Protein 1
Amino acid sequence: MNKTEFSKQRPLLSLNSRLARRFWSDKIDQEHLHTLKELTERFRFSIAMGELLLLDGRWYVTHAGLLSLAQRSRCASIRVQQVREFCDPTVGRWVFRATVYKSPRSKGFVGYGDADPSNVSSLVRGAEMRVAETRAVNRALRKAYGIGLCSVEELGSFRPSLESAPGSQKGLASAGESVPGNGQPRLRDRLCQLIRQHNLDPTLVKRYAADFCETEHLRNATRERVEAFINQLAEQAAKDRAGLLCQLNSYAAPQEAKS
């Protein structure tokens, strides 16, 4: 990297380092920061854009990060095909083959992605076909651009700490389960993504959400109120995570008092 290119990377590297320390203050060390520096300089991934996540002590790239890299690198095309002989819609099993063409004359980089109820999170059950397609594209892109990091979407399930938290699945998922699909990400998926991205306590977020929506049970809240809460949570997490954590901790006090 020459001096001009390095100078262009400095603002992004500074922002990534600052956000990493803010979001994962109690989990990040110098080794993580060194790896982050390499990823920033080589691939220009952005934490602010949700392109990198630190989960259980390891960096993971996201689908959004891989697509952004492909766009910056002027990827010629991505072709995705269903591998029909391995698919069984009756049991929710899907397999896709993705081919990434970095240039019009490229022979292509191939990646396969599979998904079924046994290897996806309970939060995305019923969307195995989309998960399989995303995994295939991610693997092909990682091969094409030499990325050794695993992508978040390739994980067999979300973080154990997220799924095993008391009431996290029922409380957070119910906010969007009763709303028909309209082509937009489900509210529960957006909310869980925010929790993962900013390393928030799902139980406290649930209590905060119920209070915000002025309802005892989050499942009784209207879609409009839940959506408003998610937008506010995203803004708070991006602008003042420390203040958000203090606010979330205030919802732990009544529970602690009972114990």
Protein 2
Amino acid sequence: MAAVTLALLAAATLVPAALDARQGRGQQSPNLQQATQLMRAGKTAEALAAVRAELKTNPASLQAGNLLDTLGATADAKAVFQRAIDAAIDPLSRANAQRAMAMSYAFDGDCASTMKYEQMVMAYWVTREQADPQNAFYQQGEMANEGARVCIDAGDLKTAEQWYRKGAELGLKEPGNQTHPKSLWDFRLAHALARVAARRGDKAEAQQQIAAARKALDGDPAMAADQERFFPYLTGYVALYTNDLAAAEADLTKATTTQGNQNDPFMLCLLGMTYDKLGQKDRARAAYEKAYGLATAHNPPAAFVRPFVRKTLGLQ
């Protein structure tokens, strides 16, 4: 829940492994550009064919592996990521490939395996504590939170809570917390614990954590300027999972129309789930289809949305 999504924040410093020039932030290869266009057009088989054409010449391409996961070919993706791990030219490259593997398991809803690889990435950042403490502790907190996000979506609430708490603990070790203030970690932890409580059906605890999240926002207007947009997502999430569907619809509608959230596939999927529970099948399907089309990243929101919508709507 940072100023940009967790995955994008981590990507700012965990760039893809430099196994070839196309695996950084530059242009996709022609094969992968074609695969992305085909995927967005709903042509899964053709998109997979384009990705596999790329792998013939670039067998350890993280970008190709990412697309395989998004297209549902998660076993094939893991083979690519393992090749990238084995071929890594330095510790940072290996950490990037391990993080990609963690997300591949997220697409399977496999909390335990996701955390196994997230901890490998965290171990890399431990080695950077002396040289780069401002970033190293933050990245450890990010990776813990990223894995926890996968675990809550997978329904492993105990593990999710454990790693959300650990994430805040690690993030607060940043010297002085000048780059990422304590208020941010307080807000993120309360946000997470409210969602965990809602999933457990503990409405009272969820409301207490919502109040803590609100207090953190109100206590730091500078932090809140970036984080306020995540508050209606929180209240909508809690309302959905505690079966207050009228509030869920209102809050998630607000969340998905707030500046910065309009293209968030997870929030749209939650709104679709709310419509489903309300018996509004046409509106649910429209929200699901929009969420599915937007879920093209290799991150926790897409890792939940793509398999969920694929199963719910019977997509191939």
